[in-house]
């Protein structure tokens, strides 16, 4: 006896939406499962027949691997930032010479932060230049705004790791741009206001005499720095001094610690630019490896 399977109109349940749409209303579980199977998604039943204690052990194992992948991802971002700080070196001041135009200053802040993966470095250099009168407060404000946009590049890089699967990439990019939209809309609103009335500049000048003893040490840096310092540790204070002209470039030592410290500082058999390029390559390889591992673990 042959059982006839009733034909189901998927549009009755999904309102014409595709299965990869993040707005899909899961009105009928059977229909959604059928659509997933048609799209090539197969439920992983590797651990279906295992005892509960083995499932728990495997779960803990993958959880630990996920934490390790996340840790190495943070180390990779730190190494890349330190490496580009080393590569920037004597050219730090030149990178901000276009700040006379507010729009150019905004773009410079975005690009510099995207390259360095550190809005703190861009902000520190900008503050140092303003303090040394190499740049006015009015010129520095657009750069700081640009740094707030450029700091969102890392999450977009993570989202692009899912580019091979359309539905996952759509959701990953949607999540990655949440922070971006907040910063971008803040700049879109405040940037024209700053150009017309300069409220941030006026408030900054009014608060210039204030002092604070506040101090906060990031718990992430406490965990990440011991490992990243073994690879590379740049002297960002020296970069700020070179940017302001307090120290000549030929007398500056941009590397404080790391695997190439002896070659760059002691033996001087390698330039800081070469060391920065090698460490940046190591950081990018570590970044890709950690992202791929994290995706597979999840």
UniProtKB/TrEMBL annotation:
<dbReference type="GO" id="GO:0005436">
    <property type="term" value="F:sodium:phosphate symporter activity"/>
</dbReference>
<keyword id="KW-0812">Transmembrane</keyword>
<keyword id="KW-1133">Transmembrane helix</keyword>
<feature type="transmembrane region" description="Helical">
    <location>
        <begin position="56"/>
        <end position="77"/>
    </location>
</feature>
<dbReference type="InterPro" id="IPR003841">
    <property type="entry name" value="Na/Pi_transpt"/>
</dbReference>
<keyword id="KW-1003">Cell membrane</keyword>
<keyword id="KW-0472">Membrane</keyword>
<comment type="similarity">
    <text>Belongs to the SLC34A transporter family.</text>
</comment>
<feature type="transmembrane region" description="Helical">
    <location>
        <begin position="103"/>
        <end position="129"/>
    </location>
</feature>
<dbReference type="Pfam" id="PF02690">
    <property type="entry name" value="Na_Pi_cotrans"/>
</dbReference>
<protein>
    <recommendedName>
        <fullName>Sodium-dependent phosphate transporter</fullName>
    </recommendedName>
</protein>
<feature type="transmembrane region" description="Helical">
    <location>
        <begin position="182"/>
        <end position="200"/>
    </location>
</feature>
<dbReference type="GO" id="GO:0005886">
    <property type="term" value="C:plasma membrane"/>
</dbReference>
<feature type="transmembrane region" description="Helical">
    <location>
        <begin position="141"/>
        <end position="161"/>
    </location>
</feature>
<dbReference type="GO" id="GO:0044341">
    <property type="term" value="P:sodium-dependent phosphate transport"/>
</dbReference>
<feature type="transmembrane region" description="Helical">
    <location>
        <begin position="275"/>
        <end position="295"/>
    </location>
</feature>
